[in-house]
Automatic annotation (TrEMBL):
This is AAA family ATPase. It comes from Qiania dongpingensis.
């Protein structure tokens, strides 16, 4: 069993130091206890994914949720609590370590939303989004793919028998109809195991829908809990429906092929996202990462900006049909890093 690495940041620096000292003496062969005294240091460890567990004060629960990617987070409490993730600070080393083991045993059951948007046309956004959905389905995760592109073509990748599509859902939402019934009526399942809503035939319907309705729709999907992952596939356009999707997403993946045109267009997208971050959609930049696809090792160029995380890079794959290309991409380890 590999040694687990635990970052400890309590508001009481003395407790942090003593906790790491005593626990390290007792369980040093099993775990490395790393005392952290500054918030920016803790944030750096989390960003680098260099720890397996974070233990912090219960007062910081809002800043540090129970799961940050694949990092488990626990909270020191001043009173005994049966709530998962909480550790009573005044107990024996053995009981404290048992609490850590229980934190590691917890499974993240929250519904995750990942939005893929294209920096430019023909960069493989839909293929990347579909590949990620396929990978999750292959891992026996229930995943729903939603194509919100203005000119999307879900049928080129996923096949279903249900004639109702996302256009039908939008119409029902506008009419105030029974959205639960509409969602069930429009749902399809591909042979890969991916559930999906077929894309709208009329692109103006996507642009016309109110941001509040899209937000309510995505919120309902999360609250229902029918799916573990929601994958949104969209080209980038200035419309309220897309902004709602980006706001609801846990991760925004911008697909870019590294060409001059794509980098130029992404620069404009990033400028707009920074404005949204400062106004109506705070936090959107922090959860955004670039995924380079069809990246040419000789001619491709990365968009140089230290503010933007990079999820990974996929070089030009052997020629294949759209479905086969998505299947090839689904096997690549780079996709595993998206929600880390």
């Amino acid at each position: 069993m590999k040694q687990i690495r635990i970052a400890v940041y309590d508001l009481d620096a003395v407790y942090t130091e003593r906790f790491c000292q005593y626990m390290g003496e007792r369980y040093g062969q099993t775990a490395e206890f790393c005392p952290v005294y500054e918030r920016n240091e803790l944030d750096g460890l989390i960003a680098a994914r260099s720890v397996d567990v974070v233990l912090t004060a219960d007062a910081l629960r809002e800043e540090y949720p129970p799961f940050i990617g694949d990092i488990h987070v626990g909270y020191f409490t001043a009173e005994v609590s049966e709530e998962p993730g909480k550790i009573f600070r005044f107990q024996s080393c053995r009981e404290l370590f048992h609490g850590i083991e229980m934190i590691l045993d917890q499974e993240d059951t929250a519904v995750k939303t990942v939005a893929f948007i294209g920096a430019n046309a023909a960069v493989g956004t839909s293929t990347a989004a579909a590949a990620y959905a396929m990978r999750l389905a292959a891992e026996e995760k229930r995943v729903l793919y939603i194509n919100m592109s203005d000119l999307g073509d879900t049928g080129s990748i996923f096949q279903g028998v249900n004639p109702k599509d996302f256009q039908f859902l939008l119409t029902e939402m506008k009419a105030g109809a029974d959205i639960d019934a509409a969602m069930s009526a429009a749902l399809n399942r591909d042979s890969s195991g991916v559930y999906f809503y077929d894309n709208a035939d009329a692109p103006l319907s996507i642009m016309d829908i109110e941001e509040g309705r899209v937000a309510a729709f995505l919120r309902m999907l999360k609250e229902r809990g029918d799916f573990r992952y929601l994958i949104i596939d969209s080209s980038f356009s200035v419309n309220h429906g897309l902004f709602a999707a980006l706001g609801a997403a846990d991760k925004v993946v911008v697909v870019n092929d590294g060409t001059f045109v794509s980098n130029q267009r992404f620069h404009k997208i990033w400028t707009l996202m920074k404005r949204l971050d400062l106004s109506t959609h705070p936090g959107i930049c922090q959860k955004t990462a670039l995924l380079y696809n069809k990246f040419h090792s000789q001619y491709g160029k990365r968009y140089e900006n230290p503010e933007i995380a990079v999820a990974g890079s996929i070089e030009v794959l052997p020629p294949a049909g759209t479905v086969q290309m998505a299947e090839q991409m689904a096997r690549l380890e780079v996709l595993q890093e998206i929600l880390r």
